[in-house]
Amino acid sequence: MGDINLLNIFQAITKNILVFIGGTGGILYWWDRLRNRSRLKVYSWDETLLDDSGSESYFINFEIESLGNESNSLEKFIYLRGFTGANKKFLCTFIIESPDRNLPPHTPQSFQALLHSGSTPTDLLFSWFKRYTIVPTRGRSIKIYIRSADKIRISYLRYEYERFMSHWFKRRYKN
To answer: Which helix (H) or strand (E) holds 80?
Structure first.
């Protein structure tokens, strides 16, 4: 009689474990979704102002890699939201020049983007805070935060903190 009771308990525990792991999606499904999600990483970022025969052009050169197991690609536009030293907000759009914006897995790709619309190149050159948004076809967008004309990349929290201090207390940070 004691053996039957232990066997029923063991069966109930085993059934609960199987339902927990395999039922309604299960842990293994979500673990696989987490590990194989679409992620992108930007390795290098360079902003350049070119002055050819009186016409100014503002370029972004960057290297990006798809860290997921599947290939991904980039949308055609890169968006910029920036602030000048006088805390005036401006918006710009850059267009990626390469027609092949495909990102194979685990292979860094270099791209160049040209200023398409928005501010003038000199405004961009002397802006204080910039946030670039790169949008992939799958997955979350990447945001790159730049402080000052020296093009220093900073984290999101530092960007928001320094922008807040700059706006309300007129505090500037040295590089």
So the answer is: strand 72-83
Q: List the structure tokens of 160.
A: 């928001």
Instruction: Take residue 62 and report the two structure tokens written for it.
Output: 């960057």
Cβ atoms of 95 and 113 within 8 Å: the answer is: yes
Question: Distance of CA 69 to CAs 32, 102, 121, 128, Å?
Answer: 11, 14, 38, 37
pLDDT digits (tens, 9 = 90+) for 6-47: 788 888 888 887 777 666 566 777 777 777 778 889 988 888
- The whole-model pTM stands at 0.76
Report the candidate in 148, 139, 145 with the shortest Cα–Cα distance to residue 160: 145
pLDDT in tens, 130-156: 999 999 998 889 999 998 767 888 999
Question: Looking up tokens 């842990």, which residue turns up?
Answer: 27
